[in-house]
């Protein structure tokens, strides 16, 4: 009787040592905040380069609406750093404007739709980036 208990305990102890090896990883994912904060910073960096690639020619590299094309356009590209104009838009509105273009939102057709070139994650990151441009000191 005593002997078989010993075996049960030994077996029970084995999985413990096995998971013991994973212990450091567990505590690393346990501190979730720094990990997701770092991922967020990466996303923002990606959004910044997407913006430079696709948006800056109209909206300007710093988002103030004075890109290379701006002087030739009937409707001036939005100044994305203008808090009073941009702050009044919801994230959904910004997302839709970027995805479906100005026309879908009764804005100028000069704002092109991007859903063919950018995926949803990229557009969501751009919305976040616009929030940084307009509404963070
Ligand atoms: C060909 C020029 C052009 C490019 C490229 C362009 N935009 Fe625009 N965008 C415009 C113009 C013009 C407007 C203003 C539309 C209006 O006021 O009727 C505008 C407006 C917007 C708005 C609406 C702001 C508001 O007031 O609701 C958002 C958001 C926006 N652009 C984001 C982007 C993003 C993000 C990119 C890059 C992926 C981009 N735009 C690329 C021309 C452009």
Strand-helix topology:
Blueprint: H1 2-20, H2 23-30, H3 32-59, H4 83-86, H5 91-100, H6 120-135
The structure holds heme C (HEC).
Question: Describe it for me?
Answer:
The protein has 137 residues and is mostly helical. The protein has a single domain, classed as Orthogonal Bundle (Cytochrome Bc1 Complex, Chain D, domain 2). Helix content is 62%, strand content 0%. It has 6 helices and no strands. The chain has helices at 2-20, 23-30, 32-59, 83-86, 91-100, 120-135. Helix 5 packs across helix 6. The protein is globular. The chain starts with a helix and ends with a helix. Residues 54-55, 57-59, 69, 73, 75, 77-78, 85, 89, 94, 97-98, 102, 107-108, 110-112, 114, 126, 130 line the site of heme C.
Strand content: under 5%
Q: What is the CATH domain class?
A: Mainly Alpha
Question: What is the β-strand count?
Answer: 0
Number of domains: 1
Average pLDDT: 82
Terminal CA distance: 72 Å
Label the overall shape.
globular
Main sheet: strands, sense, barrel: none
Query: What is the CATH architecture descriptor?
Result: Orthogonal Bundle
Going by CATH, the homologous superfamily would be: Cytochrome c-like domain
**Topology as H/E string?**
HHHHHH
CA gyration radius, whole angstroms: 25 Å
Number of helices: 6
Which structural class matches the secondary elements? mainly alpha
Bound molecules: heme C
Q: Which residue ranges are poorly predicted, with pLDDT under 50 across at least 5 consecutive positions?
A: 9-37
What do we call the CATH topology? Cytochrome Bc1 Complex, Chain D, domain 2
């Amino acid at each position: 009787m005593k002997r078989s208990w010993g075996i049960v305990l030994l077996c029970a102890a084995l999985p413990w040592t096995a998971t013991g090896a994973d212990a450091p990883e567990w505590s690393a994912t346990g501190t979730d905040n720094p990990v997701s904060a770092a991922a967020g910073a990466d996303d923002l960096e990606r959004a910044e380069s997407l913006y430079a690639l696709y948006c800056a020619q109209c909206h300007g590299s710093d988002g103030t609406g004075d890109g290379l094309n701006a002087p030739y356009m009937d409707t001036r590209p939005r100044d994305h750093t203008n808090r009073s104009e941009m702050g009044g838009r919801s994230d959904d509105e910004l997302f839709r404007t970027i995805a479906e273009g100005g026309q879908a939102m009764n804005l100028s057709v000069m704002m092109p739709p991007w859903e063919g070139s950018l995926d949803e994650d990229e557009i969501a990151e751009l919305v976040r980036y616009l929030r940084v441009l307009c509404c963070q000191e």
